[in-house]
Write a structure and sequence with these properties.
The complex is a heterodimer of chains A (97) and B (183). By secondary structure, chain A is mainly alpha-helical. Chain A has one domain. Chain B has a single domain, classed as NADH Oxidase (3-Layer(aba) Sandwich). The chains are: A mainly alpha (97), B alpha+beta (183). Chains A and B meet through helix 1 and helix 2 of A and loops of B.
C-alpha cells in the first residue's frame, strides 16, 4: 500500500476538522462522506475490499454527495438511504458479510 | 468558437462550479488570459490589492490539494488569489484591509470565472483550504493573505442548474419592501 495515500487521507481529515470549526454546518457531513470515498478508493486500489454491496453503496454516495451544496434535502435523503443499506449489510443474524 | 457570440448574461447563466476535471492541462497562455481578466476588476480606492499564484505543477497541486478539502475533482491547474493586506491598510485603512479587500478579490475572481466560461474552461471557487498550510507551501510573505483558490480545467461532468432566487424575490425599488414590478 502506498503510505503517501494514507498520509494524504489523514491530512484531508485533520484539515477538514480544522475547517469545520468555521465552515457551514453541512460541510461537516460532506467531509465525512468524502473521507469514505477517499478511504474506499485506497482500499480498492490495493485490493483490500471487494464486497459488491459496498461497491453499490459507494456508487450511490458518489452520485449524490455534491448535492449537499445545491439540494440539502437530497443529500440527507441519500445519507438515510445509505444507512438503510448498511443496516441490511450488517445484518449479522443473516451473516451477510 | 461559438461561445464568442454569447452575451455576458448568457455566460453568467452557463457558468457552473465544476468538481470533476478531465486529465487535460490548460495552457499557460489561457491561464494568463484569465489573470488579464482579473486585473481589470474594480477595487476599493483603486488599490488593486491582488496577487495571483498560478499552480500548474502536478506535485505542487497535490500538496495544495492535501490541505484543501474544498478542492475537488483533480483540477490540472489552480489560481490562488491573494491580497496584500499591508498595502491596502496603508491606502484604505481598516475598511480597506478588512472589507474592501474581500470584495476586490471576489470581483477579480468573478472576472476569471466568466472569462474561463467564455473560452471553454471550467472553474470552481474554493474557500475551504487551510490558509496556514497553503501560505507555507507557496511561500507567501506574512503580509499577504491567501484568500481564494479557483480550480481551472476542462470539465468532465454534466452539472445541473441550481435553483435561483428570482429577481422579483430579491429586489426592491427605492426602499426595503418597495414594489416596482408590474402586478
Amino acid at each position: 500500500m502506498d503510505e503517501k495515500e494514507i498520509i494524504k487521507l489523514f491530512t484531508y481529515m485533520v484539515t477538514s476538522a480544522r475547517g469545520c470549526v468555521d465552515e457551514p454546518k453541512i460541510y461537516g457531513p460532506f467531509r465525512l462522506i468524502e473521507s469514505i470515498s477517499k478511504l474506499y478508493s485506497i482500499l480498492k486500489e490495493n485490493n483490500l475490499i471487494g464486497n459488491e454491496e459496498v461497491s453499490k453503496i459507494i456508487e450511490k454516495i458518489e452520485e449524490k454527495k455534491y448535492s449537499c451544496m445545491t439540494d440539502e434535502k437530497e443529500f440527507v435523503t441519500m445519507l438515510d438511504d445509505v444507512i438503510d443499506d448498511f443496516v441490511a449489510l450488517l445484518n449479522f443474524n443473516k451473516k451477510q458479510i | 468558437m461559438d461561445k464568442m457570440g454569447d452575451s455576458i448574461l448568457d455566460v453568467m447563466k452557463k457558468r457552473r462550479s465544476t468538481r470533476k476535471y478531465k486529465k487535460e492541462n490548460v495552457s499557460k497562455d489561457l491561464l494568463l488570459q484569465l489573470i488579464e481578466a482579473a486585473i481589470w476588476a474594480p477595487s476599493g480606492s483603486n488599490v488593486q490589492p491582488w496577487y495571483f499564484i498560478i499552480v500548474d505543477d502536478a506535485n505542487t497541486i497535490e500538496q495544495v490539494n492535501a490541505f484543501s478539502p474544498g478542492l475537488l475533482g483533480d483540477p490540472p491547474s489552480i489560481i490562488l488569489i491573494c491580497s496584500d493586506r499591508k498595502k491596502t491598510f496603508e491606502k484604505a485603512g481598516t475598511l480597506g484591509r478588512d472589507e474592501l479587500c474581500v470584495m476586490d478579490i471576489s470581483m477579480a475572481a468573478q472576472n476569471i470565472m466568466l472569462l474561463a466560461e467564455e473560452i471553454g474552461l471550467s472553474t470552481c471557487p474554493v474557500k475551504s483550504f487551510n490558509k496556514r498550510a497553503i501560505s507555507k507551501i507557496l511561500n507567501l510573505p506574512d503580509y499577504v493573505s491567501a484568500d481564494l483558490i479557483i480550480s481551472v480545467g476542462y470539465s468532465d461532468e454534466i452539472t445541473s442548474t441550481p435553483k435561483r432566487r428570482s429577481v422579483k424575490e430579491t429586489t426592491f425599488f427605492n426602499a426595503w419592501g418597495g414594489i416596482g414590478f408590474n402586478g
